[in-house]
Design brief:
Strand content: 25-35%
GO molecular function, one term: hydrolase activity, acting on ester bonds
Keywords: Hydrolase
CATH architecture: Alpha-Beta Complex
EC number: 3.1.-.-
CATH class: Alpha Beta
Oligomer: single chain
Strand order of the largest sheet: 2-1-7-8
Family: Belongs to the 2H phosphoesterase superfamily. YjcG family.
Number of strands: 8
Order of helices and strands: EHEHEEHEHEEE
Protein name: Putative phosphoesterase GCM10008025_17470
Structural class: alpha+beta
Length: 172
């Protein structure tokens, strides 16, 4: 089965992202707006049973942190993907690194660029038009993140939360 790890932002940020995603992201019906912390990976039940305590440990060692989104950006020329850029945050990068060491699958395909996709698989002209408008817009979001989710993929391609891991839960 395919699994992944993500952070779901607040409803306010999801609503803003979805205002674009419903038109420009073919994955809109498959998963809510999110920040991918670990790309999709294959695992059997035994492996997941082994990873869940590791995820609990990582969450317990992580303090809540703040994410900031100020603009739209893109992955051009690699792909015509447009996203809300999550500003660099050491705690977020540290969380990403912890979920790619030890028992976790080593599936880093790209450099970690925290983001929330709002458009992908766009034709060149469509990309240019949409991104041209979005890069003139200012996005002002700031919020505290205090959890991440382990997701699994259903047969229809959609993603569902298997478990939520709250930061610093056992530190209280």
């Amino acid at each position: 089965m395919k699994y992944g790890i993500a952070i779901f932002p607040s409803k306010e940020i999801q609503d803003e992202a979805n205002s674009y995603r419903k038109r420009y992201d073919p994955h809109y019906p498959l998963i809510p707006p999110h920040i991918t912390i670990k790309e999709a990976f294959d695992a059997d039940d035994d492996m997941i049973d082994e990873l869940i305590p590791e995820m609990k440990r990582v969450a317990n060692e992580t303090k809540p942190f703040t994410i900031r989104i100020n603009k739209a950006s893109s992955f051009v020329p690699v792909t015509n993907t447009i996203y809300l850029k999550v500003e660099p945050e050491p705690s977020l990068t540290e969380l990403y690194e912890k979920l790619h060491t030890g028992k976790f699958p080593q599936n880093k395909r790209f450099a970690f660029v925290p983001h929330i996709t709002i458009g992908q698989k766009l034709l060149d002209d469509e990309y240019s038009d949409i991104f041209g408008r979005l890069k003139m817009r200012s996005f002002q979001f700031e919020e505290e993140v205090d959890r991440f989710q382990l997701l699994y993929q259903l047969e229809n391609g959609s993603w569902t939360v298997l478990e939520t891991f709250v930061f610093g839960k056992e530190l209280l």
